[in-house]
Specification:
The protein has 11 helices and 11 strands. It is α/β, with parallel strands linked by helices. The longest helix is centred in the C-terminal third of the chain and has 70 residues, at 255-324. The radius of gyration is 34 Å and the shape is elongated.
């Protein structure tokens, strides 16, 4: 019998993180799933070792695809998608994690909403460091887009705010869309999301975070996040994808009207950009003035402190001078002793 959910996990030479991700899946309350691990030309032995450490019956649900040549995350996803058997598909990257109720809640929602193309859950960002001894230390945690309680095409067109770890989608639609764009080194998840959401509405499960997006901002190489180690690629890939979609919209029979729509949208974007730029300039001006006022206040305070310090120094000198003098009473006693020939006490 085919599983309800196919989980795709892409990995490459980071067994420490892979072990945590495998445990995240094996700890799910919902067990009617298959897990396809795609080793994108990494060390096969380390992947096999990590999988062997997962106890049965969870280990029996895991299949491994070893790729001899690294072709990127999107191609790895498509290689797994071609072998999936489930009704729903989830991407679980090898450095992220789920709450144990993630699959249960997502399957329940999609079963109850057959018109929805997918569902996203509330997600948090876990900030962590990789220690010299290979252990992982959590250094912070925050809710991702705390004010947003939906997953829509309108917002996703602006920016990707729901990471793959927080989503479950219908497999038939993923296949219909041709999977993930293998030409994109980064931003493939955003590109897939806008194509998916263009097909229909998606759900959102609010409440406590059921997905955990792990960030290691200081990590380099294989242990880093692409959003940090390849940040320039993310920006350029996003812009190039937008250009491609605009060109596709123009290359239709009614090219002139489509171009007019594109130009109109661009004009709105320009006006919004200019308005935001003015606000930023105003904010910079206000901050500059506040900084100047604070600096002036500090300079005045410095002068006053120096004056006070000088006054305290003068006061100390006056006290020492007074202390060195004899009081009138003491002087009278000394003269009296001299008259009677008393030179000391008995």
């Amino acid at each position: 019998m085919a599983p309800r959910v196919s989980v795709i996990m892409r990995t490459q030479n980071r067994p420490m993180l892979l072990s945590r991700a495998l445990k995240s899946v094996s700890d799910q309350e919902f067990t009617d799933y298959e897990l396809i691990v795609v080793n994108d030309a990494g060390d096969p032995a380390s992947v096999e070792q990590c999988v062997s450490e997962i106890p049965e019956p969870a280990r029996a649900r895991i299949r491994i695809i070893h790729r001899e040549k690294a072709t990127g995350m999107e191609a790895a996803s498509n290689a797994a998608l071609a072998q999936t058997k489930g009704d729903y598909v989830a991407i679980h990257d090898d450095d992220d994690s789920w709450d144990s109720k993630f699959l249960t809640r997502c399957v329940e929602f999609l079963d109850a909403h057959p018109d929805h193309v997918g569902v996203a859950v509330r997600c948090d960002v876990i900030k962590e460091n990789i220690n010299d001894d290979g252990t992982i230390t959590e250094v912070g945690r925050e809710i991702l887009d705390v004010d947003r309680s939906w997953w829509t095409l309108t917002d996703t067109l602006v920016a990707s705010y729901s990471p793959p770890i927080a989503q479950v989608v219908r497999k038939d639609l993923a296949i219909k869309l041709g999977g993930w764009n293998e030409c994109m080194k980064t931003q493939g998840d955003w590109d897939f999301s806008i194509r998916l959401l263009a097909q229909g509405p998606a759900g959102f499960i609010d409440g406590e975070p059921l997905a955990h997006w792990h960030h290691r901002q200081s990590a380099k190489g294989n242990l880093g996040n692409s959003i940090f180690v390849a940040s320039d690629d993310h920006v350029s890939a996003n812009l190039l994808a937008r250009d491609r979609y605009i060109r596709d919209a123009i290359k239709v029979d009614e090219a002139t009207s489509k171009l007019g729509e594109v130009v109109q949208v661009a004009e709105y974007y320009k006006r919004l950009y200019e308005a935001l730029h003015q606000q930023v300039d105003s904010l910079h001006t206000a901050l500059y003035q506040a900084h100047a006022d604070l600096r002036q206040t500090i300079e005045k305070s410095t002068v006053q402190i120096e004056q006070l310090r000088q006054e305290i120094t003068n006061l100390h000198e006056d006290v020492r001078e007074l202390a060195s003098r004899k009081t009138p009473t003491q002087e009278f006693i000394d003269r009296a002793k001299a008259k009677v020939g008393i030179h000391g006490s008995r």
